[in-house]
């Protein structure tokens, strides 16, 4: 009796500990990954949207999963949901093991499928609908009782609810029937399940491959990681075979390696930009200098928004001019980040175009709450109120964007409020109205236009002067600097370093007052070290090091 109680409460303690660890992992290590999932869907309380989902195989589970995913906008709630789902998979696995006569000392083995699933979730394209569908199927397997002939009704119903993971249930019934010597029923149920999917292919406008792989399990419609099949198979193996508990150590160690550090670093930068947490971006870059083009762009944008780019640009790794604005790529991640930069610069039309491109490039054809919000904003700024209203009415049908949408609808009714708005009013003053088409090889010209249009555009000033320096074009830098200083007083550290470097190339003395004595002294030491063929590593963080390094 005592051993039974210890085993019971020991299992509860282990499951609780597992749930807490999962929660802490998502909440404090990868909260940005949860927000990433939310931003590439738009759950609507709309009849056409709901019917469009539940009318497809696996659509019911997908509808519920997308409803849950919208709460990922708040990482704490999202982490709780992720924890409950993985704990659910573990508990259902154990109940099936127990139902099959597995001993209590094998309890740890029930964690193996959940841990492997956790590892696979490092692939950000695996959607919550996959985890939820697996949990629904496992629960159906646990609840199954009575004649196996009931499967004739349950199989098509489960297929419509959870998608092709229904095959796991069919295989479970098949094994159960075969073990009971009902070979015809066992084989028949399995063939029946396959036929259900095959028949649905005759009526639905999807290729058979996608119907067998699942319409909503994976973000990319033309790609399916078939190793996902290993997880339901593993659930069956753990159910029927005595897998030694010590083997749970392997997936426990494996979990962190499923999350690519560089990929999730970009997600975090994107998350911080979306939240406009400029100080947090700079702090992150200070701790570990970014070396990917997109993370460099994020850092430069944050420095620019804090008016620090002219002082600190070269204290961080720079990726040439693409560190300011990357080349246009027709995908749903880079276009989104690039559009953020254009938006803050005041290129409203270009930001709108990138938002369109990002949404159209979402692989599973979903809408995006974040993008729809940005499209509403750009149309508000441009005075396209009918179009803005269309997007705002859409957001009214959501949970987390509803209040924001209602506030912006009130602005439409009172246009003067838009002009007074701290963001939209300023954007109206900064924007170029004819920025629909321009060459991305002449970005300096665009920055120049932004500055000439509004000399108060601090971000445009910083980008205009940093751009030629990143291109190691000192002559252009000096021309732009003169044009800037004719209108505004702007001469930060990087500009002073550029001025003294330019005059040294001309073998001329720097006019008094242009460069501080400290920078003059530092440059003299740099010039001396460089002329003697010494290493210039001591001058990292200066423009001179960037220009003269190998």
Number of domains: 3
Number of helices: 30
Q: Name the average pLDDT.
A: 93
Low-confidence sequence ranges: none
* Shape call: elongated
Main sheet properties: none
Structural class computed from helices and strand pairing: mainly alpha
Measured by DSSP, the beta-strand proportion falls in: under 5%
How do the helices and strands follow one another from N- to C-terminus? Answer: HHHHHHHHHHHHHHHHHHHHHHHHHHHHHH
Rounded to an integer, what's the Rg over CA atoms?
29 Å
The number of distinct β-strands equals 0
Helix content estimate: 55-70%
Would you write up a description of this structure?
- The chain has 550 residues and is mostly helical.
- It is 66% helix and 0% strand.
- The chain folds into 3 domains: 186 residues, no CATH class; 169 residues, Alpha Horseshoe (Serine Threonine Protein Phosphatase 5, Tetratricopeptide repeat); 58 residues, no CATH class.
- The protein is elongated, with a radius of gyration of 29 Å.
- The N and C termini lie far apart (75 Å).
- The mean pLDDT is 93.
Quick description:
The chain contains 30 helices and no strands.
